[in-house]
Specification:
The protein is an alpha/beta fold. It is 50% helix and 23% strand. The two termini are 19 Å apart.
């Protein structure tokens, strides 16, 4: 069956950063944990970023993933919102780099296509499919469901990449 690989999926956000951890053993995916990291909206930006970084580092330390899958930023109509999302993504990438982890970034449409089969699926569809693929997850928060979806998408791609590499040898 092969080794088990632990993947941490992240749905970055300054106010709410969803996270989800899965184990991949062959083609089998198993839910490990999930949650949402939050920062105080009334705090200064630097304090919010530091809080998210500390919380994310604690998740990485506790679950010890082999890889992190981060949802890429989409083109937002609100430049301020896009900048805040960029800050949160930077925290995710920094924490992963500090832990020496492989980082994969995927467009939201790619994640939705991997999990739901449709690139423009709604959050409710993503949540439903995550609950179907990981029945023990009992995930309710959309941010955590999106993070688990990012981990699932990476697991699917990692499996494909492994098959390609094995065929080339």
């Amino acid at each position: 069956m092969g080794a088990t690989i632990r993947i941490l999926g992240l749905d970055p956000g300054l106010a709410r950063m969803g996270w989800g951890v899965i184990d991949m053993s062959g083609t089998r995916l198993t839910h490990v944990a999930h949650g949402v990291l939050t920062s105080n909206a009334k705090a200064e930006l630097a304090a919010r970023l530091m809080a998210l970084h500390e919380l994310l580092c604690a998740v990485i330390e506790e679950h010890r993933p082999a890889a992190i899958s981060v949802e890429q930023a989409f083109i937002a109509k609100d430049p301020s919102a896009a900048l805040k999302l960029g800050h949160a993504r930077a925290i995710a990438l920094l924490a992963a780099a500090q832990a020496g982890l492989d980082v994969a970034e995927y467009a939201p449409n790619h994640i939705k296509k991997c999990v739901v089969g449709v690139g423009h699926a709604g959050k409710d569809q993503v949540g439903m499919m995550v609950r179907r693929l990981l029945p023990t997850a009992r995930v309710e928060a959309a941010d955590a469901a999106d993070a688990l979806a990012a981990a699932i998408a990476h697991a699917h791609l990692a499996g494909t990449r492994a098959k390609i590499m094995a065929a080339l040898v």
